[in-house]
Amino acid sequence: MRLKIMIALAVASGALLSWNLHTMFLRVPDELNQGAIFRIIYFHVPSAITSFTGFFFAMFSSVMYLAKKDLRFDAIAASINEVSLAFATVTLITGSLWGRIAWGIWWTWDARLTSYFVCWLLYVGYLMLRRAIDDPTTRARLCAVLSIFACADIVIVWKSIEWFRTQHPGPVLSIRNGGGMAPGMEAPIWWNLLALLMLAAVLIMMRMRQDAIQREIESMRRYAHAF
Amino acid sequence: MSFLRQSLAIAGKDLRSEVRSKETVNASLSFALVILLLFSFAFDPSSEQTREISGGLLWLVFAFAGTLILNRSFARELVNDCLDALISSPASGAQLFFGKCLANYVLLLIVETVCLPIFVIFYDARWPRQMWLLFIVMMLGTWGITVIGTLFSAMTVNLRLRELMLPTLIYPMLIPALMGAIQLSTVLISGEPLGPDNQVWFKLLVGFDVIFTILALALVEIVLVG
């Protein structure tokens, strides 16, 4: 059943992504000041939102692990964090590409860029910590605590954009009172967000499946060694 | 009251053992001096530009030297299984953590107080007019480093790669606090008065300290005991 849901989600996500690519390249006109490169926002912003959504869900799952002590929640948190880190990397790379064209530089130490990079490093640390601990229960416990700390830290760095002067473009989405984009131009962002969230769900399910299979192989190996 | 008494007993134990052995403070101070020396090769120490980045330099020294103290905080309890004895003692995980935090805080502040005049002499910096404000910044920033560092020191104490994992995990986590402390210290060391736009950095430092102290006290029992 779960496999069927995964395949259905993958197909839906693929179809929606193709449709979105068609819309953003063939139907949406070039932006007045930036030209064609502005289209990168259709992947940059949805990836950023997907990664943050993932990090918060992972924190929720970590809290659930601490409350229930069920290793399944730890597996969910680990899978979500891995996939979210991949989306965070996409955000950094697409942002850097856009910056090269729009600002003429690959990277600038602006508050939001720095904050996002910090966030990325925090979750790289999370994955490193996972690899450094062998005992599953200790690993789950310490990683859950790290996930909660990382999330609290994200909130502080996320708020920092309102406090620091910044070079990063201000909010353009209507829900953040930006309203800087024409409705026809903004819509593909939300459709792409939906597609990427579905893709993230598929990847997370796939990762958890791999995890379950790996555990099964390990238990079979232990069983074989017993004889 | 009992919470504070137990924590002070732990802090007293740590400080007494440090006074007798002087191992971490000496190592941390020598390391801080080495970094101050290395900085002099990275740029011209007498230039005006140095004053503009003085806050950053100072806090880098504090953060690097601090890691040595924080790394040893729980690691020194591994010998003779002292950590297990401490965990099974009547003191709760939060009391143990808070006591360790207080001891680390005092040790870090000692290292910083020694480093500050040396930094001023080496890099021809001016003594800030509002010295007391710089001390407040140092106290707030150092508490942030201590509280995060001590918790992560407890988390990484049993890892094989303890010395590598601690800095990798704590530096990204500390960035908001370090940013605030660096900004304020740079303004104060360059002799300028703190304007209203700098108050937000104070709020950031205080907020960071409060949030992470509460979180650490709430979660340390899970880290130490499970």
Q: How do you describe this structure in short?
A:
With 227 residues, chain A is an all-alpha fold. Helices cover 79% and strands 0% of the residues of chain A. With 226 residues, chain B is an all-alpha fold.
Question: So how many helices of chain B?
Answer: 9
Beta-strand fraction estimate of chain A: under 5%
By DSSP (H or I, 4+ residues per run), the number of helices of chain A equals 6
Tally of DSSP β-strands of chain A: 0
The average pLDDT of chain B is 88
Instruction: Let me know the largest β-sheet of chain A.
Output: none
Oligomer: heterodimer
Order of helices and strands of chain B: HHHHHHHHH
In total, how many beta strands of chain B?
A: 0
Structural class of chain B: mainly alpha
Low-pLDDT sequence parts of chain A: none
SSE pattern of chain A = HHHHHH
Helix content of chain B: over 70%
Kindly provide the radius of gyration of chain B, computed on alpha-carbon positions and rounded to a whole number of angstroms: 18 Å
